[in-house]
Design brief:
Layout: H1 9-15, E1 32-33, E2 36-37, E3 44-47, E4 55-57, E5 65-68, H2 72-92, H3 95-110, E6 125-126, E7 142-145, H4 153-171, E8 176-181, H5 183-195, E9 200-206, H6 214-219, H7 228-238, H8 245-260, H9 263-291, H10 295-298, H11 303-314, H12 320-332, H13 337-346, E10 351-356, E11 359-360, E12 371-372, H14 378-381, E13 386-387, E14 415-416, E15 426-430, H15 439-450, E16 467-471, E17 476-479
Parallel strand pairs: 3-7, 3-8, 8-9, 9-10, 10-15, 15-16
Antiparallel strand pairs: 1-2, 4-5, 4-6, 11-12, 13-14, 16-17
Helix pairs in contact: 2-3, 3-9, 4-5, 7-8
């Protein structure tokens, strides 16, 4: 799924964690006898990424409008509104005049995404998600759970619980398998915190911000930074996962020409004063009003950013209900992931955490040097892995941080997985763009689900060791050498 680089900070924030490619082959035939399914394979529920449910304003009325993701025409209209003011500000340097055009134009597309002061959706903004009706299921088919990404994860957990109960009744099973992608991991963790794992056979977390993502932490503290190198490296590492054949060769050649000729630097030098001068107003008049009550995005803020983010986004007199809601997820779910997931494992439910790596992170914030899958920092997706900065290694003579009797250092000496929350249950794929999957990922997940009765981990199958190489052209995941 392609992401378009936008000039507006608020647009980029709404799109973070919005990548997801879902593998949904045809479902298998099933037979239900006396209300129980005889297939022997628990149904899989895919807990999807941010943007999994379309958000509407005034749904099912003559005034119905798609709020997220906006239709292409909305972006075209936005560009048309801003192209003239952009050229004008480059000549006049009248940044307030440009902000006067930028802020209402972007607010016209995204302003209605704002929740009320307590973090609830306004009544006129809803989804149209429906419960599934097809009982056919199996390892070659799954059920899709979408949700409002702005909602309190602990409220979404209630919806996920009801969805699981519905699928169990529909399919005649007592447990489900969960596969969470990106923000779906937030909702899955909220569910496990609130309802436990009694109805879960096994769970996969794919590129999930289990401990947040630095882009949210930086933006919720009012920090932005765009550099020539970060933009180039993002294109260099992310585009090969999106393109193929002649198109990849042509586009990457063009990217190199633009960078090495200095043209990219020239453009950024022109844009930087606009960012420097307009960013304070964009934050104060657009980003903060739209996102301060967005409990879902708050779940992305890592612990080291969290308290300062609350001061910046919420001010001196925050709404007490909102504060209680975001604190409950942050301190009882994100920061207690170890307690939650270790309880899950101790109760016999296998866990797979899969983190993408070796992709330049979003070229928007000061932490752009963090290794990532392009969206979620690898250290947060792996829940504590020690990760070298992109293009670097852990250093000659590096010694594994935790002596646990196993080697958890990657063959390329870039990752020490011994510091992960679950070092025996965490896989790394390099390079892997955020939640961009292919048949090779599907084979890995199928193997995990087929063997989840055995409590599989990174040592269970030599074909799927802890560190995997992403063969994008061959659509395979191979042991890293």
């Amino acid at each position: 799924m392609k992401r378009i680089f936008k000039s507006s900070v608020s647009i980029i924030l709404t799109l973070i964690l919005a990548f997801s490619v879902v593998i949904i082959p045809s479902a298998e035939e099933t037979t239900i006898v006396d209300g129980k399914c005889t297939c022997g394979e628990e149904p899989e529920i895919y807990v999807a990424a941010l943007g999994s449910a379309t958000l509407y304003k005034d749904a099912d009325t003559p005034d119905e409008k798609v709020l997220f993701r906006p239709e292409t025409g909305a972006y075209v209209e936005l560009i048309a509104k801003l192209i003239g003011p952009l050229f004008l500000v480059l000549m006049t340097k009248d940044y307030d005049a440009f902000a006067d055009k930028l802020i209402p134009a972007v607010d016209g597309i995204f302003g209605d995404l704002a929740n009320d002061e307590e973090g609830n959706s306004t009544p006129d903004v809803t989804t149209k998600e429906e419960l599934p009706t097809d009982p056919a299921h199996g390892l070659t088919g799954n059920y899709y759970f979408g949700y409002d990404f702005r909602a309190d994860p602990l409220v979404v957990a209630d919806d996920l619980s009801a969805y699981i109960d519905h699928v169990l009744e529909l399919t005649g099973h007592e447990k489900v398998r969960l596969r969470a992608s990106s923000m779906g991991g937030v909702m899955t963790m909220a569910y496990l915190y609130k309802y436990g794992e009694a109805k879960v056979k096994s769970v996969i977390f794919q590129c999930c911000p289990l401990q947040g993502t630095a882009v949210a932490g930086d933006l919720f503290n009012g920090r932005i930074q765009i550099t020539e190198e970060s933009v180039y490296r993002y294109a260099e590492t992310a585009l090969p996962s999106l393109l193929e054949g002649f198109t990849e060769t042509f586009v990457m050649g063009l990217v190199n020409v633009v960078y090495k000729s200095g043209f990219l630097g020239t453009v950024l030098n022109m844009v930087q004063p606009i960012l420097d001068n307009c960013a304070p107003r964009v934050f104060d008049e657009l980003l903060i009003p739209v996102f301060k009550s967005n409990c879902g995005i708050w779940s992305f803020v890592p612990d080291e950013y969290y308290e300062s983010a609350k001061a910046y986004m919420l001010g001196e007199n925050p709404n007490e209900v909102l504060l209680q809601r975001i604190d409950e997820y942050h301190y009882n779910v994100q920061q207690k992931a170890g307690d939650i997931l270790n309880d899950v494992l101790d109760n016999g439910v296998p866990v797979m955490i899969l983190a993408g790596t070796n992709i330049q992170r979003t070229p928007l914030v000061p932490t752009w040097t963090n290794d990532s899958d392009g969206t979620v920092d690898t250290k947060y997706a792996s829940v504590g892995g020690t990760i070298a900065p992109l293009y670097e290694t852990l250093g000659e003579g590096y010694v594994q941080a935790v002596d646990c009797g196993h080697n958890h250092i990657s063959p390329d000496n870039r990752i020490d997985a011994s510091t992960c929350l679950l070092p025996e249950n965490t896989w790394f794929v390099t390079p892997m763009l955020h939640s961009t999957t292919h048949d090779g990922h599907g084979e890995l997940y199928r193997w995990f689900f087929e063997n989840d009765d055995e409590g599989v981990n990174v040592w269970s199958n030599p074909d799927y060791p802890q560190f995997l190489e992403n063969d994008i052209d061959g659509q395979k995941l191979l042991p890293q050498k």
